[in-house]
Amino acid sequence: MHYHGYLWAGAKERFDQEALRRPPHPEPPPSGSKPELIQRYREVAAEFPTVDLPPLETSYWLVKPRSLIRDTWDEAKDAAAWIRGRVAAYAGRFASDRERDLLSLAELVNSATQTLSSGGDVSLGFYLERCSYLSLAVVTCSPNRSKPELTCPLG
Predict the structure, then answer these.
(1) Model confidence pLDDT, tens digit, residues 30-85
(2) Residue 2 and residue 154: Cα distance in Å, rounded?
(3) Cα–Cα dist 3/139, whole Å
(4) Is the pLDDT of residue 110 over 80?
(5) How many helical (H) and strand (E) elements, i.e. helices and strands, does the chain have?
(6) Angle at 67 between CA 65 and CA 70, to 5 degrees
(7) If you placed Cys at 126, which of 9, 34, 115, 134 could pair as Cys (CB 3.0 to 4.6 Å)?
């Protein structure tokens, strides 16, 4: 088992494009469906695997391009340390004073370490100033507990 880290920061408006953040339904719309529904399904089916937006289900990061992986670790504590570093780097831009609290950061890192050690994924999100959003995720790989059928993007 190992862990992959992902980071996305950008406009909240883009983050809110939920159709591109969820995998397409396994079955396409039935024939005779409205053309705009069929077109939208095709767009989502083509874009979901390649778009850099964070997926709604954390494990689906594993189907994204390997170029989106920020780092990989063999130890949960090292992955949690990466989270700590990224949160600390962005803390000055957090929209909420409560989220800047370093004691909360220590609790968050401890919780992340425990979750990752037990085979779970960690996904965090923070509103940043100027209508921006930060998404951090560490995904357990080989296998992923919630989606064991997803293969490691590193091969």
Answers:
(1) 989 999 999 989 999 999 999 999 999 999 999 999 999 999 999 999 999 999 99
(2) 11
(3) 5
(4) yes
(5) 4, 4
(6) 120
(7) 134
| The two three-digit tokens of residue 131, written as one number | 């209508």
CA distances to 30, 125, 130, 140 from 58, in Å: 29, 12, 25, 10
pLDDT of amino acid 130: 86
Rounded to 10 deg, the angle between the 102-117 and 76-90 helix axes is: 150
- In the chain, the percentage of residues whose pLDDT exceeds 70 is 97
Distance CA 106, CA 117 (A): 17
- Please, are residues 9 and 77 in contact by the beta-carbon 8 Å criterion? no
Q: Tokens at residue 61, please?
A: 């990061």
